[in-house]
Amino acid sequence: MSRVIDVHVHLTPPVIVGERDRLLTGEGAWASLYRDPKAKMVSTVELLAMMDEVGVDQSVVMGCPWSSEETANLHNEWLLE
C-alpha cells in the first residue's frame, strides 16, 4: 500500500494572517510572496481539508524564513503547540 506524503507545507498562525501587512514589513522575498491579500496563507483546518480532498496521507510542516526573530519565535511556538 503506497502513501502520499507532502514533504513541504507552510502553515500560518491566525495572528500572522491578521497582522499580515505589519509582520511582512522588511521580510524581503517572503513578503513578495504574501504581501498580496489574495496570496493564501493556510491554516491547520484548511490544510487537513485539502489533504483529504486530494488524497494526501501525511504532510511535513516547515517553518518560515522570517527575518524578524520575534516573528520567527511567534510562528515556531505556534507550530510546536
Helices, strands, pairings?
Elements: E1 5-10, H1 14-18, H2 20-24, H3 28-34, H4 44-54, E2 58-62, H5 69-80
Parallel strand pairs: 1-2
What can be said about this structure in brief?
With 81 residues, the chain is an alpha+beta fold. 49% of the residues lie in helices and 14% in strands. The protein has a two-stranded parallel sheet.
Major sheet: arrangement of strands: 1-2
Q: Which structural class do you get from the secondary structure elements?
A: alpha+beta
Q: Terminal Cα separation, in Å? A: 31 Å
State the total count of DSSP E strands: 2
Mean pLDDT: 92
Question: What's the helical proportion of residues?
Answer: 40-55%
For the sheet with most strands, the description reads:
2 strands, parallel
Shape: elongated
Main attributes?
81 residues; two-stranded parallel ribbon; 49% helix
Structural features, described:
The protein has 81 residues and is α+β, with helices and mostly antiparallel strands. Helix content is 49%, strand content 14%. The protein is built from five helices and two strands, in the order βααααβα. It has a two-stranded parallel sheet with strand order 1-2. It is elongated. The termini are far apart. The model has no long low-confidence stretch (mean pLDDT 92).
